[in-house]
Design goal:
The protein is an all-alpha fold. Helix content is 54%, strand content 0%. It has 1 helix and no strands. The protein has one helix spanning 15-61. The longest helix has 47 residues, at 15-61. The protein is elongated.
């Protein structure tokens, strides 16, 4: 019984070509690994910088916050009296 995959892909019979394909595969895997590490390092670096920025903003903004937080909200409002005109 023949494998249907063989009609699309036939592995090379020359051992040097096979060795070259193995080396190319290893090179592609290594390049993918290096690029993955590079993007992971960028993501971790951005996360650390963001954490530092948020920590500094919280630390510097702590003195501006009201000490007594009783849950009340100060509001101002104005009552506008509108009379209806019956015509």
């Amino acid at each position: 019984m023949q494998d249907p995959w063989r009609q699309f892909y036939q592995p090379p019979t020359n051992p040097l070509v096979r060795l070259g394909m193995v080396l190319a595969g290893i090179g592609i895997l290594a390049l993918s690994f290096i690029l993955g590490l590079f993007f992971l390092a960028i993501a971790v670096g951005l996360a650390v910088v963001g954490f530092i920025v948020l920590a500094v903003r919280r630390w510097l903004g702590a003195g501006k916050r009201k000490q007594a937080d009783d849950g009340l909200i100060d509001v101002e409002y104005r009552i506008v009296k509108r009379e209806r005109r019956d015509e």
